[in-house]
Amino acid sequence: MSPSAIPSSTSNGHFASDLNLSLRGLGVEYPPFLVGPEALETLANRFYPPSTALKKVLSINRFTGIETRAAIGEVDHPIVNQPNPPSIKELNDLFRVEGVRLSVNACKKAIQEWGGSVDDITHIVSTTCTNSANPGFDHYVVKQLGIRTGIEKILLHGIGCSGGMAALRTAAHLALGSSYQRKPARVLVLACEISSVLVRSELDSINEEQQTRVGVCLFSDCASAAILSNGIGDDETAGPIYDLLGWKHQIIDDTEQDLGFDVDPLGWKVVLTQRVPTLAAAAVSPCFQDLVKSIPEFHENSQSPIAADFDWALHPGGSLIITGVEQAMNLTSEHLRASYEIYMKYGNSSSATIFSVLNKLRELEGKENVIACAFGPGIALEMMVLRRHRTRPASTNGSESDESFEILDTPGAAVKDNLTNGNGVPYRNGNPITTNGAATDDDPSDIDGEAAQAGSSVADGAGHNEIPAANGDRGPASNLPVEDVD
């Protein structure tokens, strides 16, 4: 491979025809507890008096479309049952244990599937938005994995839910730099978030400021990892899972105040406005068009591919994000089936979610090429084109057990796995979700435009909580406002 063929793009903005970059291992580690919408209501009633804002949040919480959320503990976990919300120091101490443990397990799964040695890892690119200690959590992950201390590390911060894809984009540039030097690159990409323990901080703000902060209804915990290879010196038994064909990063102008995650003495607080779903959906089409134009092989004949020619791995920031992109790009719920399933079963795990969606998507039959997409603070839009290579059984998470690489133990818990009844009909709390997205008789009539003004993404019925119906199309819309975040 000559140096002139190696850079990721040429002077005319086109990617090289063969970047020779591929994902060789994926690992996803959710904590063992899945909590339903009732957990938030339990904590709210246990520590806070009834109020108009709290009533709205709890009503919205029942209709997010999320069946369960992954969490490091159940509703009685000590850190969320103190008289006061945990301090940022307490949150950091917990992340140092739970976040590092999830991260190490996710990395071990990705490394096992790749089939290489930790000694062959050349770089690590990590990200989180729920911890900001120094040294970063990646330092402790490296130590527990037994990776040499001199390895090149990069820890990305301030990029929220787009962090997983930003880390992969950064890894791709590092790998291409190694290719230019004719050196092998095996980049470990890691994302970890512990969001569930911020629940008391958010409930405190709802109680004290009477704000309808609906981000508390969506976030969950997860770590995920990937191994990116530049193909030089490949001798691993495992072939590629996905090839990287190209990527694009852009900022939506004048949206800094629309989406964020602000530091606070009691953790971090979600910042968003009701414009987010509309802004995000509107930005996807021009970004997709530019990205497709930059990949030469998509223009070998006279007709360029359209969005529906790809499967989509969309970060499931919320129901309106998913359905907004679906509508804007003329897709069906089948194109976004992996995003819907991860959203319903685990919730929004911020930066770690995108690798979980890609992991789920490869289990499913589908199209050869995939668009991955995520939104983060800024508002930043990350998009990639990948080519799918192979599938694997759902139960192995991409790896077989290996006694020499033991996965760290975490407390066990039974998990509910009844999202569908086998015919594609989604379930919530064991009951089929009707076509308006509701599984209860709750009356949401008191949830009005004020919820949207205070942070919900729907104002005056402008948006809806939509869940894929059994026929693959969205059902009629509910009149419930639903929060969507990055």
Write a structural description.
This protein has eleven helices and 15 strands. It has 486 residues and is α+β, with helices and mostly antiparallel strands. A nine-stranded mixed β-sheet has the order 5-4-6-7-1-8-13-12-11, sandwiched between helices. Strand 4, helix 4 and strand 5 form a beta-alpha-beta unit. The radius of gyration is 21 Å and the shape is globular. The N terminus and C terminus are likely disordered.
Keyphrases for this structure?
486 residues, alpha+beta, disordered N terminus, two-stranded antiparallel ribbon
What oligomeric state do these chains adopt? single chain
Low-confidence stretches: 1-11, 393-405, 409-486
What percent of residues adopt helix (DSSP H or I)? 25-40%
Strand order of the largest sheet: 5-4-6-7-1-8-13-12-11
Sequence of secondary-structure elements: EEHHEHEHEHEHEEEEHEHHHEEEEH
Short account of what is shown:
By secondary structure, this protein is α+β, with helices and mostly antiparallel strands.
Topology:
Elements: E1 22-29, E2 33-35, H1 38-47, H2 52-61, E3 69-71, H3 88-114, E4 123-127, H4 137-145, E5 152-156, H5 163-180, E6 186-193, H6 199-209, E7 222-229, E8 242-251, E9 259-264, E10 267-272, H7 276-293, E11 311-314, H8 319-328, H9 337-346, H10 353-361, E12 369-376, E13 380-388, E14 427-428, E15 431-432, H11 449-453
Parallel strand pairs: 4-5, 4-6, 11-12
Antiparallel strand pairs: 1-7, 1-8, 2-3, 6-7, 8-13, 9-10, 12-13, 14-15
